[in-house]
Amino acid sequence: MRTLLAAAAVATATLSGAAGAADFQPAIIFDLGGKFDKSFNEAAYNGAERFKNESGIGYLEFEVTNESQRDQALRRMVQRGASIIVAVGFGYATPLDAIAQEAPETKFAIIDSVVDRPNVQSIVFKEHEGSFLVGMAAALASKTGKVGFVGGMDIPLIRNFAYGYEQGVRHVKPDATVIANYTGTTPAAWTDTGRASELALGQFDQGVDVVYAAAGLAGTGALQAAADKGKLSIGVDSNQNHLHPGSVLTSMLKRVDNAVYNAFKTAQDGTWQPGVLSLGLAEDGVGYSVDEHNKEILTPDMIAKLEEARAQIIAGTLKVEPYQQ
Amino acid sequence: MRGKLPVWVNVGLLPLLNLSLAFLVSGLIVVLLGENPLEAVRLLVYGAFGYGEALGYTLYYATNFIFTGLAVAIAFHAGLFNIGGEGQAMLGGLGVGLVGIFLGHWPWPISIPLAILAAMAFGGMWGLIPGWLQAVRGSHTVITTIMLNFVAGALMTYLMVNVLIKPGQASPESVTFAESVWLPQLGPLLGLGRSPFNAATIVALLACVAVWLFVWKTRLGYELRVVGKSEPAAVYGGISPRRQIIIAMTLSGALAGMMALNEILGAQHRLILGFTAGYGFVGIAVALMGRNHPVGIVLAALLFGALYQGGSELAFDMPAINRDMVVVIQGLVILFCGALEHMLRGPLEALFARRTEAVGQAQAQTA
Question: ipTM surpassing 0.90, yes or no?
Answer without folding.
Answer: no
